[in-house]
Write a structure and sequence with these properties.
With 78 residues, this protein is an all-alpha fold. It is built from four helices and no strands. The protein has helices spanning 15-18, 31-35, 47-50, 54-69. Keywords: Ribonucleoprotein, Ribosomal protein, RNA-binding, rRNA-binding.
Length: 78
C-alpha cells in the first residue's frame, strides 16, 4: 500500500440486528442458518469475519455447539 494512502473499509453490519432477531430466537435446530457461520472444515467463523455483533455471535456459537452435541452438525470435516 502506498504511503499516505488511506483505505476506507465499510463496517460490517450484524444481519440479526438488522432483522431485529433476538439472541434467544437463534435456534440450534436451524442447521441451514448455522451452516453459514461455519467453514467447510467445521470451524466457527469469528465475528470479525462474519460481521455479527458480540451478543449474536455468542448465541450463534452456543447454537452450533448444541447442534454438534445433538449430532445435527459435524464437529469436523471428513
Amino acid at each position: 500500500m502506498p504511503k499516505g494512502k488511506k483505505t476506507f473499509r465499510r463496517r460490517k453490519v450484524c444481519r440479526f440486528c438488522v432483522d431485529k432477531v433476538k439472541p434467544a430466537d437463534i435456534d440450534y435446530k436451524d442447521v441451514q442458518r448455522l451452516k453459514h457461520y461455519t467453514t467447510e472444515r467445521g470451524k466457527i467463523i469469528p465475528r470479525r469475519i462474519s460481521g455479527n455483533c458480540a451478543r449474536h455471535q455468542r448465541a450463534i456459537s452456543a447454537a452450533i455447539k448444541r447442534a454438534r452435541i445433538v449430532a445435527l452438525m459435524p464437529f469436523t470435516a471428513d
